[in-house]
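Write out this protein's structure.
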Amino acid sequence: MPESTPRNFLLPTPVGGFSLMEILITVAIVSILATIAMPGYINYIERARRTDGYQALTTIIQAQERYFSNRYTYTTDLTNLGYSTASGWLTSKQHYRITASNCGAGTANAIGRCVLLTAAAQGGQVNDGDITLNSRGQKSFASFPYWPDR
């Protein structure tokens, strides 16, 4: 009868899988990486959404210039330009609400010389701030130093 080799029952046999310590270390590393990457990702998303406001402002200012070339005045009523509401038009992706107003407050017939378009941030874009553009080409952005053309 063949002699069998004795087994040592005191030593554990290797089993596949991960130990609890390995899983905890992996979770800790992933958490640290997510904490570092998340603000950069949010900033990237806000910058990408900002183009929605830029595009709407430049499109509406072009419509304002066409309106001015026919009537020698600008309008604060966006329905005159073909938009669905007179004031407070939401952009296509609904990140900004566009309004038109006089550039020079307190001056007579200011709308005839200059119109100010404001893209007010909405929803998740509120922390990013508002964007303005007037018919004189002056641009401003509340929380960022430049427009995308620089």
